């Protein structure tokens, strides 16, 4: 089991980078940088590549709509170059609120676009002359759609690796099936080990049946809130997790178009998911958080004494998780360092 964490996109970045070096020394395996409607992730990942030596770096995630496929490939190759082969390209569809509201482009055909983006990226990394004529991307652009001067080109530089690992963030059955088919890694959210097979098992099996053996085993990367120790006020810590779950289940999307709400329903919390969404969209965020089921909070977190957390880590591993992205509930640098040190011991 590998241990990772997400670099904060709020607050002082240089302080976060300095702390990451300490976490790297403590055994951290992976550091992720998010890109939503924040600062871009590329500049931060490049900075981190320069100040770290061993830790792997992950974009979590680049939305597929905000860059052309070839620019995505160029960016990934550049980050892999400056990090000496330590970069993983995390991609996802994001959602219509961000893509149409922030980027101003239509949120259409996420599955088809994801497949074509990955295909084009791998052509670029192999230094082939890029020719792709798919349902969503035409490279080079046909003459009747432009000047007619476009021609197939290949990347000038030689990438560090011709196959940079790709991670797809996916929740729905078809998206998860695609991840299991074409990506080196898959990132679900709010992972419940005990219900993962019933929710995602069929999709994973269908994707793996079409998977190229050259991709290796599918890696599963998921985030978990963490607090470890005896005598913790577990109830208070669990209450700190609820607002994030309520935000996603209730507020990350509209009624009828919220992927996280759909996931809660598939986990078996249909009535609770509706109540959380209704309260959240009515502006009653605290009440929405109060409706998040205890079972969901506990199952998707690592909170309690070392022995309990060790059992939960084993449950995640048995469900196929290969990397836990830690969200330490101790907000101090010293607390986060202790969390990484303890988790390295338990995960080992």
- Approximately how much beta-strand content do the residues carry? 5-15%
* Average pLDDT: 96
Specify Rg, calculated over alpha carbons: 20 Å
What is the number of strand segments? 12
Please list the strands of the largest sheet in the order they lie side by side. 1-2-3-5-8-9-10-12
Secondary-structure element order, N to C = EHEHEEHEHHEEEHEHEHHHHHEHEH
- Category from helices, strands and their pairing: alpha/beta
Distance between the termini: 7 Å
Give the uncertain stretches in residue-range form.
none
Estimate percent helicity: 40-55%
Shape: globular
The total count of helices amounts to 14
Give a quick account of the main beta sheet: strands, pairing sense, barrel closure.
8 strands, parallel, barrel
């Amino acid at each position: 089991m590998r241990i990772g964490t997400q670099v904060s996109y709020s607050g002082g970045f240089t302080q976060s980078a300095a702390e990451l070096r300490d976490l790297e020394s403590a055994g951290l395996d992976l550091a992720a940088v998010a890109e939503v409607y924040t600062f871009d992730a590329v500049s931060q990942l490049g900075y981190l590549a320069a100040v770290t030596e061993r830790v792997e770096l992950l974009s979590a995630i680049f939305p597929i709509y905000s860059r052309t496929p070839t620019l995505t490939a160029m960016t990934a190759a550049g980050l892999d170059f400056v990090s000496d082969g330590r970069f993983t390209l995390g991609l996802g569809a994001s959602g219509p609120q961000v893509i149409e509201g922030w980027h101003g482009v239509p949120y259409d055909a996420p599955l088809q676009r994801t497949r074509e983006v990955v295909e084009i990226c791998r052509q670029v990394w192999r230094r082939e002359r890029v020719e792709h004529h798919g349902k969503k991307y035409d490279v080079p652009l046909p003459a009747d759609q432009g000047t007619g001067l476009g021609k197939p080109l290949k990347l000038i530089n030689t990438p560090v690796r011709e196959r940079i690992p790709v991670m797809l963030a996916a929740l729905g059955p078809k998206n998860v099936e695609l991840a299991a088919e074409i990506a080196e890694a898959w990132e679900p959210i709010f992972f419940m080990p005990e219900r993962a097979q019933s929710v995602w098992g069929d999709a994973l099996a269908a994707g793996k049946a079409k998977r190229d053996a050259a991709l290796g085993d599918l890696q599963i990367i998921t985030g978990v809130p963490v607090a470890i120790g005896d005598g913790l006020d577990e109830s208070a810590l669990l209450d700190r997790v609820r607002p994030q779950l309520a935000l996603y289940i209730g507020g990350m999307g509209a009624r009828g178009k919220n992927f996280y709400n759909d996931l809660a329903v598939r986990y078996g919390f249909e009535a609770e998911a509706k109540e959380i969404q209704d309260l959240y969209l009515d502006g009653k965020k605290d009440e929405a958080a109060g409706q998040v089921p205890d079972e969901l909070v506990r199952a998707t977190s690592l909170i309690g004494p070392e022995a309990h957390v060790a059992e939960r880590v084993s449950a995640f591993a048995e469900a196929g998780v290969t990397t836990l992205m830690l969200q330490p509930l101790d907000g101090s640098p010293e607390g986060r360092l202790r969390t990484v040190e303890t988790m390295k011991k338990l995960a080992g």
